[in-house]
Design goal:
Alpha-Beta Plaits; 2 domains; four-stranded antiparallel sheet
Length: 178
C-alpha cells in the first residue's frame, strides 16, 4: 500500500448521505491529492467510506478532520507485521486488527469528536438573540422545531398573563412573527 488509507465513520443520522460526506471530505483534503476508493476494509459494516492520500500528507490532513460535519470518527489503516506475536500484542493493547488484501493492518484512531462538546453546541443548548414585540433584543436559550418546514420556535419563561408557560415565539424566516 503506497498511500495511506483513512476510514471515515458517518454519523448515524447521516448514513444515507455517504456520497455527500465523501464529497465533503475530498473537498476538505483536495490540495493533498486525496481520492475516494470505491471500497476498503470493514465494508461489510456499513456507514463508512474511505479516503486515500500520500503518507506525507497525513500531517497536514489530520488537523483538518474536526471540520467535517458528516463524520464523527476517522481511523488510519496502519500496516503491521504478520508474525503471530503481532496478534497477541494487539489483543493486549485492545487494538482492532483488520485483514485487507491478504495483509494485516491495525486501526489507529486519527480523529474522534468530543461527544460533550457536540452536545453543548446542539441547537437546544445555544443562545439566540430574538427581538421582542417591544423592540428589545432578548437572549433565548435553545429552540425546538414547530413541526412545519422553515419554522423554529424559541421558548423562554416571561410573565405574559394571556399566554401559558412556557411562552414561545414562533419565527418563520422571511415571514415575520406569528
Amino acid at each position: 500500500m503506497n498511500d495511506s488509507l483513512l476510514i471515515f465513520y458517518l454519523r448515524p443520522g447521516r448514513r444515507k448521505a455517504r456520497t455527500v460526506a465523501t464529497a465533503e471530505a475530498l473537498s476538505l483534503l483536495q490540495d493533498l491529492q486525496a481520492t475516494a476508493p470505491a471500497g476498503g476494509p470493514l465494508s461489510e459494516t456499513g456507514g463508512l467510506f474511505w479516503v486515500s492520500m500520500p503518507w506525507d500528507a497525513l500531517e497536514t490532513a489530520l488537523p483538518r478532520l474536526p471540520r467535517l460535519g458528516y463524520t464523527y470518527a476517522v481511523d488510519l489503516l496502519v500496516p503491521i507485521s504478520e508474525h503471530p506475536s503481532s496478534f497477541d500484542r494487539a489483543r493486549d493493547a485492545q487494538e482492532q486488527l483488520v485483514r485487507w488484501h491478504h495483509k494485516l493492518y491495525r486501526l489507529a484512531c486519527a480523529y474522534k469528536e468530543d461527544a460533550q462538546a457536540v452536545r453543548e453546541s446542539a441547537p437546544d443548548r445555544r443562545t439566540f438573540l430574538l427581538e421582542t414585540s417591544a423592540g428589545t433584543i432578548r437572549p433565548v436559550r435553545g429552540y425546538r422545531d414547530a413541526g412545519c418546514p422553515f419554522v423554529m420556535r424559541a421558548c423562554w419563561s416571561i410573565s405574559w398573563p394571556w399566554l401559558p408557560e412556557p411562552h414561545c415565539l414562533t419565527r418563520s424566516p422571511g415571514l415575520g412573527e406569528s
